[in-house]
Design goal:
This protein has 309 residues and is α+β, with helices and mostly antiparallel strands. Helices cover 34% and strands 24% of the residues. The radius of gyration is 18 Å and the shape is globular. Bound molecules: aspartic acid (ASP).
Length: 309
Amino acid sequence: MSEQKWALALHGGAGQISRDRITPEKETVFRAALARVLEIGTTLLDQGADALDAVEAVVKALELDPLFNAGRGSVLTSDATFELDAAIMRGSDLQAGAVINVGHIAHPISLARCILENSDHVILAGDGAERFALQHGFQMVGPSYFDTPHRREQLMQAKEAATVSLDHSDFKYGTVGAVARDVRGTLAAATSTGGMTNKHPGRVGDTPLIGSGTYADNATCAVSATGHGEAFIRMCVARDIAAQIEYGNLSLADAVHNKVFVDLPKIKGSGGVIAVGRTGLPILSFNSNGMFRAKAGQGSQPLIAIFGD
Ligand code: ASP
């Protein structure tokens, strides 16, 4: 097989992200974080690493950074608990792993990968997922690992604004994700999240659902989504982007555009996706005000961006 050009994209969540909500100082901090994490992935891909290794490394780095709603910086449920979701998928053989509602795992994305590699299942949830993690040598962390004053404050605001509903349109969603193509042409996608602030305990978003928030198939594309998970589940966003390419012969850019700007708005689905295809640079697209995002391709200038312009 001839060597392909590698490509990588990452996101740190979409939502009401505009210049009047983020100070220039905060913007600098976010940009630096995105650039640092992008570099982790590009260095790996440049050295010939597998797409799966690259997306896991990128998402792990984002899970470590309390700026983002995943791992360390996860948001709280309405019970003020942490329920994290993650998924990872490899496009060469359609192998996938995902975890739902884990509260003691620092890197849910690595647990998802462990499920991909060491289990006959695709998704493990809750206690069963954590038992699987223990059996495979994962360290458990206590709730204090995730607890930050910022997320408590957000929970208080969410409770004041919308006691039980999931209408968090005034709040940034969050979630982190990465998609990559390696030099062998393998695609991979990874997504990790704390979910939505003030979510009902037990609620599952799109992130860990293969075909909704995360999908990868070498024949078409790799996709990682962020936004209002319920809408992304109902629209099967990630697989549907791939299906438009597979059955309709659409370009990746057109398939993404249809989903983000035509279909999702029909059900008021706010958010965005990052996607990479068999060739070319990744597509980053969102119908919210902004999306923390970055992309790079072999031989092209990296892009770091936050706002809609
Ligand atoms: N999609 C995630 C969820 O619904 C949230 C996000 O993207 O911020 O759980």
